[in-house]
Design brief:
alpha/beta, TIM Barrel, eight-stranded parallel beta barrel, two-stranded antiparallel ribbon, disordered N terminus, disordered C terminus, binds flavin mononucleotide
């Protein structure tokens, strides 16, 4: 039963044919043992605090983390440790894990070890769960709280699998249950609770919902400015006005999600919504150096003059990502997914190289490094661009 649900979660994004061996880890290297206790990031529990002191603690925690503005959004099979570390190197100041299924996390050691890995420099970190049972959510959250800065509840997943499993955005139909999930964590964890929501079609409902979460003990709220029915991010613009209204209605830190394709969007969003920080998902998959100011050629034509070749491209980023995967093993399906997303434009120029990749039922690092060499030998190069004002920044590197 557990194995069945695990496969279902993977189906969320994976479209690999069954004969692929992509669920195998990319290395036999020992994973860090999440059961080994580390020092907790907070001194005292959040239990039984009044609204006022909870808000103060929410802000104190956020400030202690350095008020991270640029954040890697949660992505199933895509915001795993090596990808988070790559984005952090290129300007991301915090990151979410992919959504973890709380029940499977409590039941299955293999799932825990493969789906949740982290390391010392992987902070600040939000660990995200989907859930519909407060006790199970708490049990799962307790296992990760020593390794993270927030335990996050996924209240935004609009996929069919979330409807079937009764989690994510489908809990918007059962707000008393949502309240009990947040309260359970807020009363019993050392680490603060955050939530990621979608908006309701009606602004009043969205604000009432956000206030309820805050009162239940949510210490940070990320608002994806699309409704549950607006699934296609390319088709529907996120509503920054609604995010602005939520920000104004709450006392806790608020983050915005949606429409972040490059740094100009980041600055516009921070200004228009007044939020503390932004999350980016799909654009980071194509360009993990987005938060360091790099942009793909798609946006260069739209923006003002002054863009120059940033001397970094997606193949360079893929090689860096692969090296991180050698250090921090993950299932091959995640690596395959990143290869396709990072090199999408390159493959459209050299489709035979993509065909060779698709024929590999079992990937190896040797094959992938060789594939990048072959792409480069064809003379293909699609640079990422920087504004000329950012060159000094580029020359000095991006490590924070
Ligand atoms: C591949 C992929 C996987 C995702 N998985 C999750 C997830 O695990 N949890 C979640 O809350 N949202 C998930 N999302 C939604 C994103 O976090 C984000 O809310 C959405 O893509 C809108 O942001 P964007 O406009 O920057 O892409 C996923 C999105 C993508 C593209």
């Amino acid at each position: 039963m557990a194995a069945q649900t695990q496969t279902q979660i993977r189906a969320h994004t994976s479209s690999n044919p069954p004969e692929y061996q992509d669920d195998l880890l990319c290395s036999e290297q020992q994973l860090e043992d999440p059961e080994q206790k580390q020092e907790s990031c907070l001194g005292s529990p959040v239990r039984c605090l009044t609204g006022e002191s909870r808000t103060e603690r929410a802000w104190a925690h956020w400030i202690k983390l350095g008020r991270p503005k640029f954040i890697v959004a949660p992505m199933v099979d895509n915001s795993e440790l090596p990808f988070r570390m790559l984005c952090r190197k290129y300007g991301a100041r915090a990151a979410y894990t992919p959504m973890l299924h709380s029940r499977i996390f409590t039941e299955t050691e293999k799932y825990r070890k493969e789906e949740f890995t982290t390391c010392k420099n992987d902070r600040p970190l939000f660990v995200q769960f989907c859930a519909n049972d407060p006790d199970i959510l708490l049990e799962a959250a307790r296992k990760v709280e020593p390794y993270c800065d927030y335990v996050d509840i996924n209240l935004g997943c609009p996929q069919r699998i979330a409807r079937r499993g009764n989690y994510g955005a489908f809990l918007m139909d059962n707000l008393p249950l949502v309240k009990s999930l947040v309260e359970k964590l807020a009363r019993n964890l050392q680490v603060p609770v955050s939530c990621k929501i979608r908006i309701f079609p009606n602004l009043e409902d969205t604000i009432r919902y956000a206030r309820m979460l805050e009162e239940a003990g949510c210490c940070l709220l990320a608002v994806h400015g699309r409704t549950r029915d607006e699934k296609d991010g390319k088709k529907f613009r996120a509503d920054w006005k609604a995010i602005h209204a939520v920000k104004n209605a709450l006392k806790i830190p608020v983050l915005a999600n949606g429409n972040i394709r490059h740094m100009e969007d980041v600055h516009d969003c921070l200004e228009e919504t007044g939020v503390e920080g932004v999350l980016s998902a799909e654009s980071l998959l194509e360009n993990p150096a987005l938060f360091a100011g790099f942009q793909t050629s798609e946006w260069v034509a739209e923006s003002e003059a002054g863009n120059i070749d940033g001397r970094l491209d997606q193949a360079d980023l893929l090689v860096e990502y692969l090296k991180l995967c050698e250090k921090y093993p993950v299932p091959w399906r995640m690596i395959r997914s990143h290869v396709h997303k990072l090199l999408r434009d390159w493959f459209s120029l050299q489709p035979h190289i993509r065909d060779d990749l698709n024929k590999q039922s079992k990937l190896t690092f040797e094959f992938l490094y060789d594939m990048v060499d072959r792409l480069r030998q064809t003379g293909t190069r699609i640079p990422l661009y920087l504004k000329d004002t950012q060159i000094g920044f580029a020359a000095n590197g991006y490590t924070s």
